[in-house]
Specification:
This protein is mainly α and 74 residues long. Helices cover 58% and strands 0% of the residues. It is built from three helices and no strands. The chain is elongated.
Length: 74
């Protein structure tokens, strides 16, 4: 019994797509699912940087653009 060309083509395409998926998982998908490692790396890399000193053009540090008001205490 010979395997038809359609079955071999389907197996090839499925294997190729599966291979790409397995290759992309550690590169693109895994970092999106667990960002804690990258947050720790960023925290360590920026621990000695004062943002006020490196802000360009004497601009103020980012603040909330929608200006949420603090509740008034009466």
């Amino acid at each position: 019994m010979a395997i038809s060309k359609n079955v071999r083509y389907f197996a090839f395409v499925t294997g190729f797509v599966g291979f790409i998926g397995l290759t992309m998982y550690p590169i693109a998908i895994s970092p999106m699912l667990d960002v804690s490692e990258y947050k720790n790396i960023q925290k360590e890399a920026r621990k000695n940087i004062k943002q006020e000193d490196i802000q360009p053009g004497n601009m103020k540090i980012w603040s909330d653009p929608f200006g949420r008001k603090k509740p008034d205490s009466e």
